[in-house]
Amino acid sequence: MRKRFIGRRAGLVILLCAMMAFMAACGSSGGSQQQASGGGGAPAPSQSAAPSSSTPSESTGEKKIVLGFSQVGAESGWRTANTKSIQEAAAAAGIDLRFSDAQQKQENQIKAIRSFIQQKVDVIAFSPVVESGWDTVLKEAKDAGIPVILTDRAIDSPDTSLYVSFLGSDFVEEGRRAGRWVVEQFKDHDGDVNIVELQGTVGSAPAIDRKAGFEEIISADPKFKIIASQSGDFTRAKGLEVMQAILKAHKDIDVLYAHNDDMALGAIQAIEAAGLKPGQDILIVSVDGIRDAFVAASEGKINFIVECNPLLGPQLMDLVKKVVAGEPVPKRIVTEERTFTIEEAIAELPNRQY
Ligand code: GYE
Q: N or C, which terminus of the chain has less Cβ within 10 Å?
């Protein structure tokens, strides 16, 4: 009898412990990255630890802010750094981050946003893979009373009431910066300057704007000719593949303008495989400023880097908190960034964070 009683009590204790452990696991979602159901089926990136200097989380009994974030994918070094920044900043700010990777597909982002609406998150933020086609789903978020923040990339909707703020770079200006450098290099050059352009993802804001800004500058002099312009989808593999084909079709290339570093790095492999010297036989300018590009620049293989800062996490979390608190926020926040020549890249390399 006694034995049975002890056995039952031990069973109860075990059950209680199990329940407590379960509740603790559920409650400790501080900065956790959960996959939004229907968000493309990609596994959520592993959680990064909050920096030790982080402010204490607001888990003092108050309800945590829930942020649904739909990321483009993991196509580039820039994107990896951006994801890490967002995850770390959310953890540091005590924000419950529900993170979804769209694997570069708009349909996955739309599904993720709908899932966030169903989950009744406090704020939705996303980096739209392409510019068009967001009105319907963003209207659904608006009708549900959930504020939306555009991060990194813009949308082309004329209805600006569909989002509260847009935080990101000025991609047109980045294109202009690349164009100005090319014009300066060839200011004393007579005859044509043959340029190859590797574009980013078709229909994406950075591909559209970096092309427009660059063309705006080089079109001032007809000697600048874009002899080939194709998308490499912002990836190293496609940069390599597309450049290989272009090198077969064109023998006299003076400049490569790549909309991001990863495509430039892929193209460098193709240029070397074709027996040419990147940075000398073909001048290379690219956008982003990831560490690998700084290494290539320090080896003389990339001549000019136009920086695009991916470390948007802390600014995004500040915005989220303000929006939840009902404070006014700027409709547009432009990231500050600079450019690097080879000499400047060599000096910067040891400090490069991403
Ligand atoms: O330049 C590219 C990434 O939207 C600014 O996306 C971003 C771009 C970045 O894949 O590397």
A: N
